[in-house]
Amino acid sequence: MTTLVGGPRARGRRRLLLRSTPLTVALSFGFIGILLFLAAFGPLLAPHGPGSLNLATGLTTPNGEFWFGTDDLGRDVFSRTIYGVRYALFGPVLIVVGAFVIGNVLGLAAGYRGGMLDASVMRWVDLMYAVPGLLVTIVLIGVLGASYLLAVVVLVVLTSPFDTRVIRGVTLEQRSLPYVEAARTLGLPVRAILFRHIFPNILPISFANAFLNFAFSLVALSALSFLGLGIGPGTADWGRMLSESRLLLFENPAAALAPGGMIVLTATSMNLIGDWLYDRLADRGRAR
Amino acid sequence: MIFIARRLVAAAVLLVIMSGAVFGLLYASPGSAEQVLLGTRVANEETRENIRQRYNLDEPLTTQYWLWAKDAVRLDFGESIRTGEPVLNAIKDRAQLSLRLGAYGFAVAFVAGIGLGVLAAMRNRSGIDRAVVSLSVVGASSPAFVTGVFLLYVFAVLLGWFPVFGQGEGAMDQLWHLTLPALTLAFGAAALLIRFTRAGMITALDQDYVTFARARGVSEGRVLFGYALRNAMIPVVTASTVLLAAMLTGAVLIEVTFALPGLGALLVDSVAFKDVLMVQGLTMLLAAVAILTNLLTDVLYLFADPRIRYTRVAP
Question: N or C end of chain B: which has fewer CB within 10 A?
Fold first, then answer.
């Protein structure tokens, strides 16, 4: 029951996991691998700088020098798409980590303690589910002033209910298992039971959830950039690029389609991996 | 009926809390309330005094809230800081387009989502099932503005079947102009509906009553739609608040993508201009719609699943 993802006992199993991986999930892992590579070494590979203007060239369609063509300011779309990987990974990772911490603490406490605490946490979760998150973010950012950090903070608050609900459910399940009862009988403090004994068992589920949250956060952040409320103008962020080259659809469609396609591919890969992990873990009797 | 009464009270409480938060937006924005309300107008003593008078800025906060709430109940949210037009009028002008887009998109999503969900469940684990599920995964992962731009590229730029921007004149022309935006909206919403319908149908088709109905020789159509689908709809009804949230978000992005002057575009414009009064009006409207849908969902739930009427539901 206490095997960890990547623990010594899981290693033997991992090969089996990969063999039974459906093609789409394998492709998703591959795609995310490429993204990580581009995030690390992209600037070395990109043929042009992300902001290097080339007004003499102006707008061009895809050609030998500019693989995806250039936008109206003569910036190379291919290079900007590569530079965009960093923005696409950085913000969502911050949000996922923030939501992971909040969701685990609240979910563990609510699931283990029950009672009033549980009732109020779940009320809050229900409320957040019904709220159109992105619209709330738009309003708050609009009123408080546009800033990337604020967008990240608001999205952490809006994402954490997903984690909280899942973790609470699994904690409820674990609470009644003999090992928890044994720990309680031994007089271990609640904090030790929660974090040293229950937490390792629910880690795989929160790990699966992190992928789903990543997809949500990426989509939300790029939507904010698209509306001009996230990251500053001129940045090589996919949402920004799409909004700036949306009107070039006739002249150089690649300028809008490349960043758009990257958003969809990244989000889809993350969702597929998250779903697949969920299913695998559910098979082992740890359903949500 | 106690169930409905309790939900009504909860909805009312939520509405009051939301109104407090919306009122607070004025004070949350940087700069003094007076400065915010002044916007880009010339700041002389007279205009300042007018604004203080009009929005009761000299009263204590609680009185201000009370006066604001009294007006808000009558749907009076003041005048737009940007245009000076009453907020309610601006909302009324823009609402029709957004409602049409929403209705058109929902109709497409409802038919396609439930239809494909049922189809996938009937052919569980087949190629069709896999194709439908893949479609729904991509749909759920694509933000509306990306879907919109791709549809624009394929159907407006490459094929030239639909117009690129604008809302058209006359009923037929408008329907034609709204088709791509509505399809974009439907793509995301259908993805959710497929997911819930398929899961619900697979569970329902596995039940004893379905096997028994088939054994009795009930026609396959009746088994599917009279027995299984009705039970499969319960989780779908529960998910409708999530669906509404997704559609509201989608509509805002779509109106910006397709340059449609609806409520969503108004919200984004007002936010960019720091037109706090307009934002307050729109947010309050949004909150009311969300809370009302929540309430409606609970009532629908009663009809979909009569068992709830007799059991106490955990809060």
Answer: N
